[in-house]
Amino acid sequence: MPKPDPRLPRRRFLCLAALASGAAIVKLPASLMAASRTHPFPVTDHCDGHIFFNPRKTAPHGWTRLLRWKLSSSAAVWPASVPVVASRPTPLGRASTVAAYWINHATFLLQTSAGTVLTDPVFSERVSPVSWAGPRRVHVPGIAFEDLPRIDTVVLSHDHYDHCDLDTLRRLNDSHAPLAVTLLGNSPLLRSAGFPSERIVELDWWDHHTTSAGLSIRATPAQHWSNRATGPRNGRLWGGFFLSSGGRSVHFVGDTGYDDTLFRDIRTRCGAPDLALIPIGAYEPRWFMADQHCNPAEAVMIHRDLGARQSIGMHWGTFQLTDEAREDPVNHLADARIAAGVGEDVFKVLAPGASVTV
Prior knowledge:
Blueprint: H1 8-27, H2 30-35, E1 43-44, E2 47-48, H3 63-71, E3 99-104, E4 107-112, E5 115-119, E6 153-156, H4 166-175, E7 179-183, H5 187-192, E8 200-203, E9 208-210, E10 216-220, E11 240-245, E12 248-252, H6 262-270, E13 275-279, H7 286-289, H8 296-306, E14 310-314, H9 328-340, E15 347-348, E16 355-357
Parallel strand pairs: 5-6, 6-7, 7-8, 12-13, 13-14, 14-15
Antiparallel strand pairs: 1-2, 3-4, 3-16, 4-5, 9-10, 10-11, 11-12
Helix pairs in contact: 1-3, 8-9
């Protein structure tokens, strides 16, 4: 008797999700959904007043191509679990430094002279519209939620479930009451997680906010898209954040495909960061993923375009979202570093709970 395909539950779930997304898209025309908005966004090179888009790229793949991918998928089999010993962060040393702990996926704890920051906090078991299905974590968070220091600020890059985890946001609001800084259109999600409007800051690309403690946060572009089970497709903006405090800077890139001018433009406008947090995973198959997720070789190109003093690879190893094997991003990053002449000490991969200080 043949063995059951371990990918089938994931494939079936994603196919159903694609059908649901497609149904949501065709149920109400985008023009009608846009016309129903009472507060249109500014018309810019990346927004028509209602819907956001990438200035130099076409719209992301539709749900029919998502179905094509999932029905023809040959995804690698990931381990069911990976052992991780969670760590406990230590107090920040000198005020002129930043300590960055990788917790999982795109979640970092940043300790700065102007307070603590969590990026795209995800502590839930699954990243999905429902709690009983969808991508499930293969390792525990590198820092347990209960061991987090007081969190002063949360930055939220976009609305996808592996970045915008409402259950985690509710826990953070209840336990820490942080300020939330996000991109245009995402504040209703934060309010649904309990954040009051006075603790939410929405930014357009290149907008700037300084917290009461003196942390400078500038929203930066990314090449991506947005969508959840509810709301118009691309009705919420996506991006990254350039954070500065105490003479140190960190660029949280967010989810992005590679663009040969975008990251050079960020360097021109914001300066070269001391530390860049760059995605290296969820990139196969390239015919489907290239416009929205960079691969490790492109991550090295982003590192060089930004002029980062040091970079850390993120967005890998926690949730199986695409077809590559779990360790492929790490192995392919090593190959890309060698090809580009970038040292391992310059572009690192951390174990969950490990940290660097810049």
